[in-house]
Amino acid sequence: MRLFILTRHAHSTLNVEGRINGDPAIPVPLTDEGRAEAARLGHQLAPLGLQLCVYTRFERTKETAECILQGRNVPFLLEPLLDDIDVGELEGETLGEYRAWKHAHTRADAFPGGESLDDAARRYVRAFRRLLDRHETATLVVCHEIPIRYALNAAAGSPDLDAPEHGIPNTTPYLFDDDALRRAAEHIERVVR
Q: In Å, what is the CA distance from 77 to each residue of 96, 134, 159?
């Protein structure tokens, strides 16, 4: 059985500010609290024979991965398909403004100058399939809240990618085997078709 451990990046400076970031070129470092969270997760995962760590183009995912795996010889792989959603002109806005825009539009509507939730979901499907095509038996994936939320809800067969699981805490490990990750990819694809 293969194991995929998906975790959201650790607590970042934008978590403190309550702002959104969908542009990987904007540096968003971890807080001291975030680095401590990542170190705790690293301690939890220490007994596992991780063979690969996947992260996104966002600095906070790589920094989280490095804190989790400090002192371990695990190869890293950049996977842009798991990047956070491109929110375009909403970059740097508050979570409240992001949520208000989201509630006034459908999943198929692109954020002004960005991508739609459905487009991001299709991108996550491609990323999950890429992971399934690999051969490592234990992979750590450090990414963002939305791909994890979609994977959890889709693997459970929910018709809503945002429910029942909604709030994905920082540095909490979510475990998927091959079947669960494949189910997630297939169900996300059905929901956004």
A: 33, 12, 31
